[in-house]
Amino acid sequence: MSSTWVTSQWKFMPFPGHFSAAINSDDGLLDLALALPKQLGGKGGATNPEQLFAAGYAACFGNAVIHVTRAASEKVKDDDIVVVADVGMESNGSGGFALTVALGVTITGIDQAAAEEVVAKAHSVCPYSNAVKGNIDVAIVVSVN
């Protein structure tokens, strides 16, 4: 089995009174400023780790849906899948924070029962789902077009 490795660097950039940082990947394709969201008392104006997690989870879950339907009689085309990931943060009751995750998965071209079965299988093979299993409750809503 092959492995894929991606190296990213997080760098804090101190500016008086503000959290600010940047993240970049070793291949140069990822180069983003980070900022604490306004909702958490930050200056906003840049992405934040929760948005990055949501983007990664949505993309990964979409690929997991494609993966589990490749061997099925009813294949799902790449553009027949929409995954919306909502990632939030709440107090964990111990002075720290915990993430909350909700996925909205819409699949075109199959019925509701088939879509629910596909999504359940995708949830079992998705690397993000497996990484958070037992740590974050992931709410999933499945719909069809």
Written account of the structure:
The protein is α+β, with helices and mostly antiparallel strands and 145 residues long. The protein is 28% helix and 31% strand. The chain is built from 3 helices and 6 strands; from the N terminus they run E-E-E-H-E-E-H-H-E. It has a 3-stranded antiparallel β-sheet with strand order 1-2-3, with no helix packed on it. Strands 4-5-6 form a 3-stranded mixed β-sheet. Strand 1 and strand 2 form a beta hairpin. Helix 1 packs across helix 2. The protein is globular and about 50 Å long.
Q: Unreliable stretches, pLDDT < 50, 5 or more residues?
A: none
Globular, elongated, flat, extended or rod-shaped: what is the shape? globular
Number of strand segments: 6
**In what range is the share of β-strand residues?**
25-35%
Note the quaternary state here.
single chain
Give the count of helical stretches: 3
Q: How do the helices and strands follow one another from N- to C-terminus?
A: EEEHEEHHE
Q: What radius of gyration results from the CA coordinates?
A: 18 Å
The residue fraction in helices comes out at: 25-40%
Mean of residue pLDDT?
88
| Main sheet: strand order | 1-2-3
Please state the structural category. alpha+beta
